[in-house]
Description:
single chain, 200 residues, UDP N-Acetylglucosamine Acyltransferase, domain 1, 9-stranded mixed sheet, 7-stranded parallel sheet
Amino acid sequence: xxxxxxxxxxxxxxxxxxxxxxxxxxxxxxxxxxxxxxxxxxxxxxxxxxxxxxxxxxxxxxxxxxxxxxxxxxxxxxxxxxxxxxxxxxxxxxxxxxxxxxxxxxxxxxxxxxxxxxxxxxxxxxxxxxxxxxxxxxxxxxxxxxxxxxxxxxxxxxxxxxxxxxxxxxxxxxxxxxxxxxxxxxxxxxxxxxxxxxxx
Length: 200
């Protein structure tokens, strides 16, 4: 574990072995970070956020509570994971809203997924395993596993595999990764790795 002296890490936060927290990052109370993570310069990790192993949160990313980032997730520079579906500074009667006046809804990002620079993910959204969010996208609904999402609002433009490279068609409802050769099967708008044939 290596924490830069300029970082603000609450004493109640749990930081895994081998995790590095860089300049001016802030880790709030009761956050849990797994082993071998990298928290970039100026990044913010909110109270009780849960981060798995081998996660990268790049410079100036904002991970608001109660987000959950599973193992192997990549959060690009200046990404924002929001937590308030209907934000207001004040209540209907004009009183400044406090913690008791709203319910935080965290973003969930599944294993191996990546969120590109300056993307915004709206409160309550789940991003599926190994999905890839293009830089600058605004994600306002759940994302299926292996989907490549781009635009405002984000929509699926391709499929990607474990290597993050767009897949190429390899037959009816079959896709192949040009980098690894892995095959994937599409069914009812979802993608999954093709099980290896017996004896191969």
